[in-house]
Amino acid sequence: MNVRPGEWRAMLLLQLQIFLIIAVLLITKPVGSAFFLSRFGPEALPYAYILTAIVAAIISTVYAAAVKYFSILRVNLWSLGVCIFTLLLFGLVLPLGASKDIVAVGLYLWVALFGVLAASQFWMLASMVFDIRQSKRLFGPIGAGAIAGGILGGYLANLLASVVGMRMLLFLATAMLLPCIFISLYIWRHYVQPQRTKAKREFTEELAAAQPYRIILASNHLLLLCGIIALSVITAKLVDYQFSALASARFADPDRLTAFFGFWFSTFNVIGLLIQLLFTQRIVQRIGVSGALLFLPAGLSLGAFFMFLVPGLGAATFSRLVDGSLKQSLHRAGVEMLFLPVDPQVKGKVKTYIDVLVDSAAGGIGGLLLLLLVDGFGITSFGISPVVLFFALIWLVCVLLIREEYLDAFRDQLRHLRPKDKRKGLDSRHKEVLAGFLRVLNEAELGSDGRQVLYVLERTADLRDEQFTEPIQRLLHHESPAVRARALNSLSLRQGPDLLMEVMPMLADPDIRVKNAALEYLVTHHLEDAEPLIQDQLNDPRAEIAGAALVELVQETRSNPVLRKRWKLQEHFDQRVEALQRLPEEEAVAWRRKLLVAAGRAGTPLGHEFLATELGGQDPKMVQAAILAAGESLDERWIFPLVNLLSEAPYRPYAISVLVQYDLSLVRALPTYLQEGKIQLEDLRRLPTVLEKINHQQTVVLLFALIEKYFPADLELRLEVLRALNAMRRDFPELQMPATQIFRHILAEAKTYRTAIKNLEAQAKLLPLGNEQLREARSGLYRLLLQRQDGNLDRLFRLMGLRYPPADIIPVYRGLRAAGQQEKINALEFLDVLLDQPLKRLVIPLMEYGIQAADAHHARQRETDVAQLEEIQFRNFRRILGGRDVRLKLAVIHVLGLQGDVRYRPILEKCLSAPDKRVRDFAEKALRRLRGEQLQ
Predict the structure, then answer these.
(1) Which is more confident, 598 or 425?
(2) Looking at residue 234, what is its pLDDT?
(3) What is residue 688's predicted lDDT score, i.e. its pLDDT?
(4) Within 13 Å of residue 716, how many CA atoms lie on the same side as its CB?
(5) What is the pLDDT of residues 754-786, one digit of tens each?
(6) How far, in Å, CA of 283 to CA of 290, rounded?
(7) For 317-374, what is each residue's pLDDT tens digit?
(8) Where does the secretion signal sit in this chain (predicted)?
(9) In whole angstroms, what is the distance from residue 96 CA to residue 779 CA?
């Protein structure tokens, strides 16, 4: 059993309590069933089921009202007290002849209701003692106590029924229930109450006032859970009727019938105990909660099929065996785990309600079905099998549906850790928005503030709707120069009336923005008609006028070499470059900017030499302008120079934005530079930020190649690549991520993470040992190991974010790094449910181990065997020094030099031939220390 220190006492007490409860149930159940059947016969069972449902509804209503005003402990103790008193009363009045029928009905009802009420209260108490992760480990051993109690109770009923009689069995059961009161009190005071005081959660007014059935109806998870419970009870009632009816027909004597029931009920529990001890935990771990819940309905479907083919007590016993052995083992564990993600406050209000009312109401429905089938249609017990099969199939569907709801329940617990959704931009083509834009343009007065108009012109620049043309044309006479210029720019892009005569006077506008907008319009729409005017602008000595003309002409003649030659643009460009040295600095700067723009937009070799010179210049402003010009050209010759600028902070944002514009051309060009080793590592670490914006499958391939083929040892590059891949997974979900490669990387990161945890745990224990200098060196190594562990965990979850929805992985990662223990537990449990089986077996034990070892103080509190720790440290240090992490190697070598352990001399001597000079120097210094200590 996977029971950890500090859990044994609570686990054993709970195990004893459920052992006693189920033992009492299995002592009284054969007595109640046999006594009832001997008095009324199997034909009365449907009525008993209906009566049980009615009484259960009354008890559930009273129970729900009680938990509003009293603590769960007080309600549980009162419930146990009433059960003990009524059971004792039945034993006292049993000899009275007139009361036998009343006792038969009352005892049958007591057994039916005690089984669900006491068990529900017990599991509620157990879930308050243990958290989710503890529950998954310990509910199996605790449940084994229930099955062992069932074995003992059944065999006691079988052995003692004919020896001491029914009355003494009831007195024995009463005596066995008494210790449960004291166990409940002890567990509450020592395990539940301290936790409630430490982390008390208040009811909201809405939740406190809500009725349990309203809470259930508002939750798909709880509705499906109720459906599974109800269908299991209905099916079980039908199977139990078949078993009881056929057994009653075979054994007429009540004592023989009691012995038969006692034997088989105990046998069911023996098999259930074996399943619980040997298979339950393995099945839940391998196929999950929903997979574990499939076994019982599948087994009952098979039993119904056998009953249909080979009717008889044997087939009925098989079905009852499946129900009896799985229901209190595998199925019970699965159902209790379905309650785990439910909020504790909600669970307190609905769990007993579900366990008692839904269970009993379903039993009542089963009784009505039996009345309809047996009394109404005259169907024999054999003919009920198709109905059993029908309900079992619906049950299977509910189990399949609840898996996603189970996941959603855990998602809801971590919803505060989910990344916030980005707001989507306004759709400028929305009818109402367009109407608003048009209204602003139509109502714009010539002397009004142009800021709102400028905003509308900017938002409608890409729209080609003809209704905007006339209002924008009127803005050419607006008082604001910015509005006039922007309006003309907008009209240049539209199909509209010829504006030559209206635009030509605008070349004389005092505002340079209007001049340039007019020049742009004339170049793009009336190059030949306005040639003299454009030539005058081109020959103007001012850069803001002549430079703008040069840029417009270069761009307009980009695909027309004849026209470019006619305008002599190459000669003009060269003359302006030669004249730069003769111009004052301010004018030269303005001309250099214009010439760079012209070189970028030329689309030909024009200006390439000038652009290359400026890219390698020392003036940051000019280099930034050159980067933007290179981006406008989209010539592949600039890719390598631009990549080389990624490591320089002043140029990085410009280089990134420009390289993104190269799109697939960049992705195709990079492998050649990588194979030739031209790109520096510092530049390469910034490259994933560029590649993450290029939506293509080849980008994904290249990113994986960076960490697998070209630079597999660099941790910083690995993290940047994973960040880029995560961004692509988020922004371009249609791209395919290679599952095999991802799993291989997860496996490698998981092994590294395990090593990091062991290193941290060993160093945490060794921190207090040695002299002050050694302790300081160990402390530095410990901090570095913590950083490496954090980075390792980050990379591990980023890899899982490539395989699973990031909206699920991100809250889990944040939850595991949160300060609160409950958030860590919720995150780990959600991850356990989310992961596929191969990854679950790999990652979940690792995360659990990491949480346990994260607290260095906790690690130091354990018993420390120095010799064993030094052996662990030796293995870990040897692995680190044989690895590729240079910083970690330096920290380890520094510790070894101060530690003075000669066992490390061969490893340190190997480090003398390391490729990194720092490692060689540190190793040489450490070896000198070792030799000096040895000589002394």
Answers:
(1) 598
(2) 92
(3) 95
(4) 9
(5) 888 888 888 888 788 778 888 888 899 888 888
(6) 10
(7) 899 899 988 887 888 888 888 887 887 778 777 887 788 778 878 888 888 888 888 8
(8) none
(9) 81
Angle at which helices 220-250 and 385-413 cross, to 10° = 150
| 923 neighbors 886 (Cβ within 8 angstroms) | no
Q: How many CB atoms lie within 10 A of CB 579?
A: 13
What's the CA gap between 22 and 53, in Å, rounded? Answer: 21
Strands annotated E in 567-628: none
Structure tokens belonging to residue 914: 């390391």
Q: How many helices (DSSP H) and strands (DSSP E) are in the chain? A: 47, 0
Amino acid identity of residue 154, one-letter, is G
On whether the CB atoms of residues 221 and 406 are closer than 8 A, the answer is yes
Q: Which of 513, 536, 559 is the last residue of a domain?
A: 536
Range of the domain at 860: 739-935
Please report, in angstroms and rounded to a whole number, the separation of the first and last CA atoms in the chain. 52
CA distances in angstroms from 581 to 576, 615, 836, listed in the order given: 10, 18, 69
Highest averaged pLDDT of the listed ranges 108-112, 377-381, 564-568: 108-112
Q: CA nearest 247: which of 38, 26, 24?
A: 38
User: Are 798 and 723 within 8 A, CB to CB?
Assistant: yes
Q: Which helix (H) or strand (E) holds 814?
A: helix 806-816
Q: Are 2 and 137 in contact (CB under 8 A)?
A: yes
Average pLDDT over the chain, rounded to whole?
A: 81
Find, among 650, 645, 725, the residue nearest to 682 by Cα: 645
Provide the 8-state DSSP code for 605. Answer: S
User: How far is residue 823's CA from residue 410's CA, in Å, rounded to a whole number?
Assistant: 11
Both structure tokens of 84: 């003990």
Q: Each residue of 478-514: pLDDT tens digit?
A: 778 887 778 777 777 767 677 777 777 777 777 778 7
Length of the chain in terms of residues written: 936
Is the separation of the CB atoms in 523 and 534 below 8 Å?
yes
Within a domain: residue 680?
no
Helices 330-338 and 313-327 pack at an angle, to 10 degrees, of 40
Count of alpha carbons within 13 angstroms of residue 867, beta-carbon side: 0
Q: Check whether residue 385 and residue 453 sit in a common domain.
A: no
| Cα 524 from Cα 553, distance rounded (Å) | 9
What's the half-sphere exposure (Cβ side, CA atoms, 13 Å) at 542?
7
131: its two tokens = 């958290």
**155 three-state secondary structure:** helix
**What is the torsional sign of CA 485, 486, 492, 496?**
negative
- Least Cα distance to 544 among 601, 494, 503, 590 occurs for 590
Give 234-255 pLDDT, tens digit per residue: 999 899 888 888 888 877 776 6
- Distance in angstroms (rounded) separating the CA atoms of residues 773 and 717: 34
Residues 755 and 850 reside in one and the same domain: yes
Contact 221, 339 (CB under 8 A): no
Q: What is the DSSP letter of 865?
A: -
Q: Are residues 347 and 474 in the same domain?
A: no
Measured at the CA of 704, the angle between CA 699 and CA 706, to 5 degrees, comes to 95
- DSSP for 733-762 reads TTSPP-HHHHHHHHHHHHHHHHHHHHHHHH
User: Using CA atoms, how far apart are residues 194 and 592, in angstroms rounded to an integer?
Assistant: 75
Residue 90 is encoded by which pair of tokens? Answer: 């039945």
Q: What percent of the chain has pLDDT over 90?
A: 17
Instruction: Give the pLDDT score at 687.
Output: 94
Let me know whether 405 and 449 are in one domain: no
Instruction: Kindly state whether residues 523 and 401 are assigned to the same domain.
Output: no
CA torsion, ordered 876, 879, 885, 889, to nearest 10 deg: 70
Helix (H, G, I), strand (E, B) or coil at 816: helix
φ, ψ for residue 528, nearest 5 deg: -80, -40
Predicted TM-score (pTM) of the model is: 0.70
Residue 906 placed within a domain: yes
Residue where the block lists tokens 């209190």: 328
